[in-house]
């Protein structure tokens, strides 16, 4: 028998899952639909007072309650053979103990003799027969749909569940109107040699049995944990300020999404602090009509007839304007209080202008501008360069020979081209003198 389809594990000969070692109860909830966490499993309960009714799970999350009349030692995930009308079936234990009593109270199931019993733990032969019966489901489903098309019945067949003893099959279908399927039952019983049970389900139950991924990116609530379906109306979307777009508000079942009821109570509580605006607000500028409401921030947006911009107004201010309009008065604008506050701030600033001007004057005197700093830096750099040039000229004059100064000056005036080699010779001599000085000043080893 194949095990969990999501983790690709196989079952052992005793029927235990080999992969995750959870004995059929996957921790992630992906292998089984509508799993229940037994938070009392780690508590030591008295053996004598244990509740003898267990919850058994079948195909596609269908569950029912059965009594352990033979005092079998059973654990969640164990395959068991149970008593059904005119035969037997195989299911898996999903819950036991005191939580089963709570589930029965929630579902309003009475603890009486109508609860059928559990025969035994399923053996390997029982599991093999059950597997052969399950293999017939797909072929039977396709063939039954062909027969429905021939008979032109207005019904949609969604799922088939075979009994473990291969003597009965339950056909789940959905239809908008009542369907006369007596001829269909005759053909199915004659062709498949089984007892046929037709069970009509709603569109929400159909989605819960088939499963799928919702628009939120998670598995459908009805196929994972939601067991009771409450009516959902378009008023729930209106209270939450959602756009009445049927493609966005409807789920895979074609009905309104069940999650619209999840946050409806919080929205209803928040709407108690928001005033009802049935008429436009009257101001001197004109009529302001309600455009949008933020329920949790308690802000309402209004817009004038000839303007595209919206003005945000608090709910308290809206109540005040409504009271003024009831008296026959019109405020200057929607935000009259804010304008008064701004004018008072302007008066306060005008009184302190003198102090600000004095502070600016002292700041200018104490802190020079960047341009003045640059000028001072350029002046200091020019002074340093001029001093360096003067020192170099004085050194050159001291190194010149004292004799024949007049002759050299005359020759320089006559032949200015001869100045260059003489200057080069003087430079070379000066460089040689500097090298000799450096050598003499070196420390002796």
Explain this structure to me?
- By secondary structure, the chain is of the alpha+beta class.
- Among the domains are: 1-31, no CATH class; 53-120, no CATH class; 133-208, GMP Synthetase, Chain A, domain 3; 230-270, no CATH class; 275-334.
- The chain contains 15 helices and 12 strands.
- It has helices spanning 98-106, 124-134, 137-151, 182-192, 203-210, 221-224, 234-239, 246-249, 264-270, 315-327, 336-351, 353-366, 370-399, 405-414, 419-441; strands at residues 53-57, 63-67, 79-84, 87-95, 118-121, 156-162, 168-174, 195-200, 281-282, 287-294, 299-304, 310-314.
- The longest helix has 30 residues, at 370-399.
- The protein is elongated, with a radius of gyration of 48 Å.
- 15% of the residues are buried.
Tally of DSSP helical segments? 15
Q: At the third CATH level, what is the topology name of one domain?
A: GMP Synthetase, Chain A, domain 3
Give the SSE order as H and E letters: EEEEHEHHEEHEHHHHHEEEEHHHHHH
CATH class of one domain: Alpha Beta
How are the elements arranged and paired?
Layout: E1 53-57, E2 63-67, E3 79-84, E4 87-95, H1 98-106, E5 118-121, H2 124-134, H3 137-151, E6 156-162, E7 168-174, H4 182-192, E8 195-200, H5 203-210, H6 221-224, H7 234-239, H8 246-249, H9 264-270, E9 281-282, E10 287-294, E11 299-304, E12 310-314, H10 315-327, H11 336-351, H12 353-366, H13 370-399, H14 405-414, H15 419-441
Parallel strand pairs: 7-8
Antiparallel strand pairs: 1-2, 1-4, 3-4, 3-5, 6-7, 9-10, 10-11, 11-12
List keywords for this structure.
single chain, 445 residues, alpha+beta, GMP Synthetase, Chain A, domain 3, five-stranded antiparallel beta sheet, four-stranded antiparallel beta sheet, 41% helix, elongated
